[in-house]
User: Fold this.
Amino acid sequence: MSDLVKKTLIYTLLAVGAIIMVFPFFWMFISSLKTAAEVNTSPPTFLPAVPTFQNYVFALKTAPFARYFLNSVIVTLACVTATMFTTILGAFAFSRLKFPGREFIFASLIAMMMIPFEMLIISNYSTMVAWKLIDTLPALIIPFTSSIFYTYILRNFFLSVPDSLYWSARVDGASNWTYLWRIMVPLAKPTLVTIGLLNAIIAWNSFLWSVLMINTQAKRTLPFGLFAFTTESGIRYERLMAGATIVVLPMIILFLTARKSIVTGVSRGGMKG
Amino acid sequence: MRRTAVKNDERITLATFLQPAAYLTPFMLGILIFTVYPFINVVLISFREDYKVLSREFSGYGLGNYARVFADPTFINALKNTAIFVAAVVPAATVISLLIAVLLNSKIKLQGLFQTAFFMPMVTSVTAVGLVWRWLFNFDYGLINYLLSLFDIGAINWLNDPRYAIYSLIIYGTWSMLPFTIIILLAGLQNINPQFDVAAKADGASPLDIFFRITVPLLAPTIGLVIIVNMISASKVFMELFPLFGGKPGPAYSLYTVIYYMYEQFYVKWRLGPAAASAMILFLIVLVFTLIQLLLQRKWKNY
Assistant:
């Protein structure tokens, strides 16, 4: 095979693949700018004849998307902050502090990553009922403050930091607490950013748990709000696409600005969160 | 003084437990309350006979829930659909991702642009993107049927015909699995020493030889990992049904999956015993498959 043929083949395959991956997002956005009449035509038009923001106006008027958005922001920020805190402390204990049974406990935690979250909802639901948290935003936050996976990743990073740094800090009079927050956390910043981003994506997109926990419209998060919108406003694709764009856009912006750290973070971690 | 304090860390005293305990408590509280306790609880519930949700009374322990679940044709159908979904999506996603990863790993321009395109679906919500797929699959005005009509293929009722619904689910499932799979395989490829390639080329090996004789064997542990993780996540297929079929398990209730069955037993019918039993069955099946694969991989490594 000549080089030119080979190159053409590679680029063609990659371009076709890339278009298939991105096309649904393009189609979502383009359809959201069309009128009802234009959406339901065959053959479909690619670019809207006259772009209209009417669907966004309708979506924001019929469903409290602004409220959903705010709820999603609150839940995501709270989950990420709490998880970061427990992860940093946990990873430090598992990598630096010595205590009997450390390796056994850690190995058991790793094995627990196999347990599907979907299975646990049967019992976690009753816990939330007992704590009287049903239909509150804290119900969407409290169960998600610890992550074995992120603790595992951060522990691996902490283990890669040379021991000598720790002992010289201790000799200089630093306590474990000072050493952790003044030296380790700044060093681990890239890893922490990756973990935080992955966590934010998962919290933002969480759907099933919100459906179980939330009954009041004003307490819905975006993905649940969008799903409810499909039943409340009927299947009008131009409107649904406007709603979907509102849900997806913040994460796409986050992804485009932080692509490098998300990609290297996931590939280094080598597992799904 | 401080030096002795440091040395004291090595001896087991009360302080040896207190400090780690303080650091671990916030993390372990979450894990114990929301992973360990519910797991034990669900295992127990799955064996409880005549479990009453409200009074929490039950008559004893036994296999009644498992028997009931296995006798339910809906569950058998759910098990079958889940198996078909996993068997189709995991190999398809792995093969396509391997091809894309190898291409991305060759010396190409616009690397960043291609990576962005291939990885983007990873960050987006199943609900939102699923709605777009529902629109693409639409019988009358969907883009997929329009594209098929260009090739003189008649319109397919993707979402409302029980015969085709599972194909729609498989197409959407494969598409959404690609980004993560490509990332992991690409990272694996980048860890392979390029000298193997150079040496093989010097010996006159063709690109296909290099791919099957060098790349694939060296990448085997990564491929194994990807298959395990994807198998676990595909076996939990469920959320995709909400945007695609409006929350119903497919047209005419034909497309139950195991987790959907569990969800319905739990949240719609409040039959916790069968819900727990069905979740346990899925967990055990996936566990067995994972262990078999790990064993095979270990054996294969000792060639």
Q: What stands out?
A: Residues 37 and 43 of chain A are 12 Å apart (CA to CA). Chain A has one domain: 53-269. Chain A touches chain B through 95 residues (CB under 8 Å).
